[in-house]
Amino acid sequence: MTPASGSPRDARVDPEADVAVRAVGLPAAGAALCLGLIAVAVAGLLTGLSTPGEIVDPGALTRWGLPIARFVHHLAMATAISAVLLAAAAIPARVGPRGRRRRGQDGAEHPVFAAVLRIAATASVVWTVAAIAVLVLTFSDISGQPVSGENSFNEGLLGYIESIATGQAWATVAAIAALFTMLIFAVRSTPGLFVLSALGLAGIVPIALVGHSSSGDDHIAAVNSLGLHLLGVVVWVGGLAVLLLLAPVLRDQARRLSARDQGGPELVGTLLRRYSTIAGIAIVLVAASGVVNAELRIFAWGQLITTPYGLMIALKAAAVLALAGIGWMHRSWIIPRLVGAHAGPAARRGVGSTDDGARPDQRGVTGLLWQLVAVEVAIMSAVVGVSTVLGRTAPPVSEDLPPGASPARIITGYDLPPAPELANYFTLWRLDWLWVFLAVGLAVWYWASVVRLRRRGDSWSIVRGVSFVVGLLTLVWVTSGGPSIYGLVLFSGHMIQHMTLTMVVPIFLVMGSPVTLALRVLPARADGTRGTREWILWLVHSRFSRIVTHPVVAAANFAGSLVIFYYTAFFGFALEYHLGHLIMTVHFLLTGYIFALVMVGQDPLPKRPPHPLRLLMLLATMAFHAFLAVALSGSESLLQAGWFGNMGYDWGFSALEDQQRGGELMWGIGEIPTMLLAVIAAIQWSRDDDRQMRREDREAERTDDAALREYNEMFVRMAENDPHQPQGPRG
Description:
Blueprint: H1 15-23, H2 26-47, H3 60-89, H4 98-102, H5 111-143, H6 151-163, H7 165-184, H8 190-201, H9 204-209, H10 212-215, H11 219-259, H12 264-297, H13 303-306, H14 308-340, H15 345-348, H16 365-390, H17 407-412, H18 424-427, H19 433-455, H20 462-480, H21 482-487, H22 491-511, H23 514-521, H24 532-540, H25 543-548, H26 551-566, H27 570-576, H28 578-600, H29 611-633, H30 641-644, H31 655-703, H32 706-721
Helix pairs in contact: 1-16, 2-3, 2-16, 3-5, 3-8, 3-11, 3-16, 5-6, 5-7, 5-11, 6-7, 7-8, 11-12, 11-16, 12-14, 14-16, 19-20, 19-23, 20-22, 22-28, 22-31, 26-28, 26-29, 27-28, 29-31
């Protein structure tokens, strides 16, 4: 039916969709929250939360309040972080075309952008309060003291925060949440929001470091897989919760845009498509990391139904499969119809369109979309509720040290490996799932991008692709194979791991030119948002990039960090703490990558140093490595003696002799790749000279050596004007 003359076009909306949107937002979010609390109650009854402790009991407030506080904390944290991520990467900050904003003609703040930041601010306040509640209730639970305002409770809580790992972790989470809350009210720039989202995601780290993962077998795999699991949950659950809360704002904004023929349906479709890509990666992380965590704590299939822990794992797995099915419906059926339903005002008024601006196949799609989103959030809320109780439930596999544990098991958490023969470095494996997932994800992305590039007719060197994959395989080997296993018990093994990370892996990765590939494949955005391509360009041209890629800074960071690491407390921090080991791995990988990129890389840089300077820096690095290696190989003082000197192995050499061998390995593993870099740099220099000569030859051909003739004529004129030039005989 055609609307009456003069009626606003934004009133012409699908009635079914309008009813569905009014039913979501805060009402649906409230219903989902209630369902999650019910799940907490049911799971708590199944695991005995209602039963007081036999020896000490903190009281019903703590027994029930702790899982509820953790449930609220997880949902608020996920919502706050995801809201900032969506604001930084998927929603335009300003109204108007991107080109106009680049010329300084900023429009008003986009209504959806403002709404999503309001959601982030509200959620961050709840996150902070919930983190403090979890901190207090966790102490009450561990100490067996009911929550009170007495001095004894307060003093115990202070000691818990100062000296107990769990207390330190939750105090750190509360501090991160409080800082996040303060900044969310002040930050409005896209780069600032990106940094703020990174701060929020840092709150995952302390949570992953405590609980079951910190004390069970293979704690490295458990902690890293739990960290990946939490990352996937935060992005997946939080993103969907934000979309649910944004539904009324998206409805109103879409109606206004449709009234001005500016693509109302595209607003929702584009946002969902971008979230769907992130959610697809997140669900893979959640599922794969969940399987890894379950495998570490359940050793028989029957325990999935015969133990409370296994039963909750099975329920979580079923819920994830159901959510994956709904997500597949979104991506394969609903989103394409929402995006395809709008092809401009002419298409809406053309053949096959209705007089209210919606195609027949769009009618009801919007309503179904928001109904499915509400169902997803409800299921996710229930899963989070079950997970909070799961974290307080003892797994079937004991997490205590076995009787008569060896010194190596007590110090490192792992049994002593066999003697360090060369073959064992390639046959022994202990998978570090963080780096395995990263390597697999990068390899899949790289070759999918190469295929996409070739399908559109562009070329890409297979040698580059092979080099990148070799680098990723080497990264997996050095973090999950023999170097990782022996790196915990031997200085020489640690040196192999370190030098391979910083000298070998980066060369192969840099020669694969992943940044150039990304810039050629990833689409550019024109709607004012920053996608992956825009963030890469921003980082490449940023002041930070200009500083860290300066040849002197890159070389000093690459070489100087060796001395700082091995001759300060950082070495012990990396050995004793999982977080320290992770920081060490990331640092040496990045410093090596930046150094190799500056020396021989083809990816874009703010400023590439001249070839003579590159060779000079490489020679200086070789000399420094040789000096440090000689110092280590001749040292009579054992580094980290409390660690390497107490492993209890009997392999025919002492810890000091092993350290001296590590110095020799440092020289060999460090000098050979550096010489390879020098050879590559020299070849690139020669090729650049050849290209320059060919360019000059083509220019001379085109201008018939005009530049050379002008150059010679200049000398002739100079000679004619020279007063000291001998003159011919006068007539």
